[in-house]
Structures are given as C-alpha cells and as structure tokens.
Fold this sequence. Notes:
The chain has one helix at 89-111, and strands spanning 17-20, 28-31, 36-41, 44-53, 56-61, 64-71, 74-76, 82-86. By secondary structure, the protein is of the alpha+beta class.
Amino acid sequence: MVSLGGVVSCGTGGISGTYVNEDNPSEYLELNEDGTFYLKEMGLGLDGEWEAEGNELRLHLMGMVATAQIKGDKILDEDGKVLFTIEYATSFSLLVLFYLLFFGLFCLVNDH
C-alpha cells in the first residue's frame, strides 16, 4: 500500500505528470496541470486536488490532506521512502511517434 501521510498550499509548478510506484507499476499518481490528481492504489481510484510549495506536495481528497516530499523526479513519504517516480516513457513515446511520422511523410513526399 502506498500512503502519503497527512496535511495543503499553492502553485503547481513544473511537477505535473504521471508518477509510478516502482514496486507495483499498476499503482500511479497523475498530477494534472490544472491542479487535479488521480491516484490508483490497491485497485482503487481516488481523485482530488493537489498543491506544491517548495518541495512539499499536498493532496486534498475526501476532506483530508496528505503530504509528501518532492525530490527531483521522485515523490517521497515522511520517512524518505520513494513512493513514486515520474514516468518519462509517455513523453518519449510521443516524441518518437512524431519523429517516425514526420520522417515517414518526408520520405513519402520525396519519393514521388
């Protein structure tokens, strides 16, 4: 089980993205740019709002606030244990797809 502890502030900064539990990749946390989040944990899906101030992440859900620490591309619990790591594959995959499509169209146009 991934638990984020207990506490809230302002600004979403540049930390939005999908963070994955390395021990169980089916568990993840999506931090959306609009300040909302979706947490998939133990087969349950929870959503709410998030805020970040400094290196502190606060998740607001069901009238409670959970806090975690942000360190680079990782989200840590109060004891410093890594809960989630950002997933870069999505952005990288889109870049590769764009490159392949562009290169394919470029070759197609130049062949005719």
